[in-house]
Amino acid sequence: MASNRDILNAQRFNRQRLVMAFVAGTPGGREVEPSGTVRPLVGGVAVTLVILLVAFVVGRFTSSLPDGWEDSTLVVVRDEGTRYVTIDGRLRPITNLASARLLAESGSFQEVSVSADTLDGIERGSRVGLEDAPEELPGSDSLVSQGWSACSTTSTATSAFLGTSPQGQAAADHALVSVEGTIYLVAEGRSHEVPAEVSGAVLLALGLDSEPVVEVDATWLNLFDQGSVIEPFTLPEAGTPADALASTVEDAVSGMLLSVTDTSGEPRFYLVQDDGTLARLTEVEVDMYELGNPEVQAREVSAADLAQVATAEAGSPRDWPPVLGAGVGEGQSVCAVLQVDGSGGFTTGLGTADQLGDGGVSVEGGTGALVRATSGGSAGTVFLVTDAGRAWALGGDPVDTLQRLGYSEEDVASVPSPWLALFPTGPELSSQAVWEGVAQQ
């Protein structure tokens, strides 16, 4: 039997062994490694994700209608796509998104997605909404105000583009087009009719006799301002002595065409007017004057000969293009391009594109336009254009209609009214129109 001394020594040994285990390591000689901070952190994140996932799943299958759902709410049935608009606590199938917004009180529209079970027990009503109204609406940040163009096609119908461009589009200076047999010279934003009785001679004089004449429809031509007819012109009192030139130009008479070579070596042409003044002519005006006066030949004079003579406007229309540059090539489409000048005004430029086969409307997907069709002023009907390639006029109070559709007046851009004629139109959009349909049911 162990003595008290043996027991005391054993206790001291165990105490020393325990102290050494804490200070120097385990009895087996292996160091006790302190646990790191990464493992607990990862575990905490994992637990958090599990909690969030559970909350999402619970919310997914236990959805409910929000407060105030009884009116001005678009309810979408999850996994089905069925859409209802709420009116006085009843679910009414809705034709399209535009109608749902127009039925809602201004500023009160809300959209909610719920499961079919959530709608159990709620009274249903008949289908409401405007037929043929926009199915979807572009967001205010997806509205475009530039990128309008319209091109001819092989079928004569016009192909319109908004926010996108036809393939191979390039700039052009002028084009010859025809509408129902009448030829027009289009240049510098204007269309100039070429009378049928002189069209051959005019095109020959202008050097356009070999250029293709592209057939277009009247809708395309109306995108350009109507200019003066291009035809030969004369002076009514030609042959009257020009006393102001008598001392420098021999036998000077009205109707005489004078040529002065400038410092660059290019000729400048002046027409002696009936009152003895001089009118400088452009290349096109010279061609038309010589065509109308075959016997006239330009006389070369010096700048000094004309220094003391007053200048005036020519007898020809002043909106003719001064010179004709690059035209439209064979097999190309001719395009009208809406341009905004530095003052905020509009001009219609000219371009070409690869040949287009059919007419139609192409709008960049997901975009649209909110425009006021103007005729030079600030007034005009507001239209909504969507990527469906159609335009809808906003009726009723335009400001109220804009707000109901989720827009503001700042979103509206101005566009010349002929451009809206390129788009097929739908029914007028207004709260009154859609509520009239509800009242009739």
TrEMBL record:
Organism: Actinomyces lilanjuaniae
Annotated gene: eccB
NCBIfam families assigned: T7SS_EccB (TIGR03919)
UniProt key word Disulfide bond: no
Keyword Secreted: no
Alphabetic keyword roster: Membrane, Transmembrane, Transmembrane helix
UniProt xrefs under Gene3D superfamilies: Type VII secretion system EccB, repeat 1 domain
Record InterPro entries: T7SS_EccB (IPR007795), T7SS_EccB_R1 (IPR044857)
Membrane-spanning segments: 41-59
Protein's recorded name: Type VII secretion protein EccB
